Amino acid sequence: MAAAAMKTVACMAVLCVLVMGPSAEAAITCGGIVSKLSPCLPYATHKAPALPPACCSAISSIKAAASTTADRQAACSCLKSVAGKYAGLDLGLVSSIPGKCNVNIGYPLSTTVDCTRVQ
């Protein structure tokens, strides 16, 4: 009888693990965002006269990857942090990129945005 009870407990434990699934991981990372946005750098630093299509693809990709409020806040915080540290970045050009790409990311690309308010 004890063996049957142990078998039942073991089966329940396995079922719980299967139902709960793997632990949640961040859909996006700051390193991934920065890497994706590399095609935007020449434009944002006045080294390219036009916004490359790859930059717009990157913006769209980041928006799609940031599917939860937490993801969007993390992306916002990453972009805010990077924008404030990158020498030669024209913040006016940076803030215009989503609009020029016809992508609404839901928050302004700015060093003064309050990312905790991003939904």
Automatic annotation (TrEMBL):
Keywords for this protein: Lipid-binding, Signal, Transport
UniProt-listed CDD domains: nsLTP1
Membrane-spanning segments: none
Gene3D superfamilies: Plant lipid-transfer and hydrophobic proteins (1.10.110.10)
Signal peptide annotation: 1-26
Every Bifunctional inhibitor/plant lipid transfer protein/seed storage helical domain range: 30-115
Molecular functions per Gene Ontology: lipid binding
Keyword Signal (UniProt): yes
SUPFAM superfamilies: Bifunctional inhibitor/lipid-transfer protein/seed storage 2S albumin (SSF47699)
GO terms classed as biological process: lipid transport
UniProt xrefs under Pfam families: Tryp_alpha_amyl
Similarity annotation: Belongs to the plant LTP family.
Function description: Plant non-specific lipid-transfer proteins transfer phospholipids as well as galactolipids across membranes. May play a role in wax or cutin deposition in the cell walls of expanding epidermal cells and certain secretory tissues.
Name of the featured protein: Non-specific lipid-transfer protein
